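request received
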Amino acid sequence: MTVKDMVYAALFAALTAALGLLPMVAVPGLPVPIHAQSLGVMLAGGVLGAKRGGLAMLVFMALVAAGLPLLSGGRGGIGIFLGPTGGFALGYIPGAFIAGWFIERFWSRLNFVTAFIACAIGGIGVVYLLGIPWLGAVAKIGLVKAATGSMAFIPGDLIKAALGAIVAVSMKKSYPMIGK
Amino acid sequence: MIEFDQVTMRFGDLTVLDRISLAMPERRIAVVGSNGSGKSTFARLLNGLISPTEGAVRIDGLDTAKDARAIRRKVGFVFQNPDNQIVYPLVEEDIAFGLKNLKLPKAEIAARVDAVLARYGMEALRQRPAHLLSGGQKQMLALSSVLVMEPDYVVFDEPTTLLDLRNKRRVARAIAELPQTAIVVSHDLDLLDDFERVLVFDGGKVVCDDVPRVALRFYREMMAPDV
Amino acid sequence: MFEISLARITWLHRVPAGVKLLVLAVAGAAVFLVDDQRALAGFVGFAVLMPLSAWLPLKAVLKQIFPAAILIAALAAFHVVMGEPETAIAVSARLATVILLAVTLTFTTRVSAMVDAIEVAARPLKVFGIDPAKVGLTLSLAIRFIPVLFALVGEIREAQKARGLEGNVIAVVMPLLVRTLKMADDLADAIAARGYDAE
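response:
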């Protein structure tokens, strides 16, 4: 780990915490409001790439586990990871890494579509891949019920992936970080 | 003594410093110039944060590009924005950071932290989270965190730009009282009257190099708005 | 600063963070392995007794566990409707145990002690080339910069409000990212200038 790796990971962890200050956005037709904070996964991966993005989420979650009330609504503590939705929170870490990995692969031809795919695979696919089985097992409701119950969040997450993609593409133009 | 030997600095196609040669035995050196004149690059060369594209920078005979570790001990650096250089959440932890990097024994770290806090009247702030300090207190913390390492030279990159008048004067007085050699990059010309030497940068070259009375007048005229 | 309050110091506050983490890990694992209802009741009793013995502020505790409590209630109701009241009891007893113990840990332990415990826990990672001191420095940096980033978000929102862009997430996020990246460059320089050697 270089000094730059440490600094980027720490600052994007702090940035993800700060995103929790932004008000929730209610989108017409969506059952649940959108938290800007979970954009942090896609921003970390989409702007910093795989390694630094994954590290940033690892640092963020370590601080939450250490007891800082950084999640929207002022929640924190190790209990976040032990409850039924703990898998989603843990999923942020590989989620940012995988989103960043795809952003790096797509880097030379990065556009809205490729960036959206990267954000959606990492920030939604990977997160749900951990979150759903965890919910199913801990709550004893089984995979199918856990998956159906989680579907309510998919439309909001798709909007976030779109926002993440727009930001990743414009950051590539104004402040490219991959390969730096 | 600080020596620049035919130093050129390029970032891509952009030449930021162009064949600078200087020998500076003075103890109070000021650097002025417009934004983008190369003065910040000049400052960063002094403690090896960057290395010259061509030529060499030597401090007491040590090459900043080759003896990075020794240079970091010898030359301290205070940045413009204190918020971006305070590393640890608590005041005393931040002051101890550089000392831990010097691998000093615990007892000496504690003694030096105590001494610098007392020196600048900050004993009461020792356990304070850095983000609760005022702008002036933050810059004094940044200064203390560097001075506690006891460098022979201290470089200041616009140390007063973000401060109000009272704190500008506080920082200026702290700089004036330093036993070390100080190299100050600044836009606050009134702070520089007591310096021994002033370099005026423009377009990557030193266009004036003289005592403050002469060099600051030259700079004021150079920067006068076109009529 | 941002700590989840430490209202008063009790015996639990004095137990080292590592010990509390260990108890949480052992109890958390054990509660998922037992099915006997009396044993489960014992776990819940223990988990309720802990926060009580530490005199934790009730209101603040409720704020932390509220979302989890709703979810547990919903899950219990779901299992009851499915005709499995035993599962309902087991699931809610296990989750309640883990969450109550975790909240107690959080309320009785300083963040700095937790960061130290994480640094200690990271020691075995040395074999993978991860330096625990770097882990500690990175966490400290993040804690140091959380209030800085909070202030920055406030500043940018003010500025965008003046331009009528306050509801626009992108108009806040883009300048936030650019300023954060610039800050990262300065900070990396400042760390290097103070003699930090990443090797």
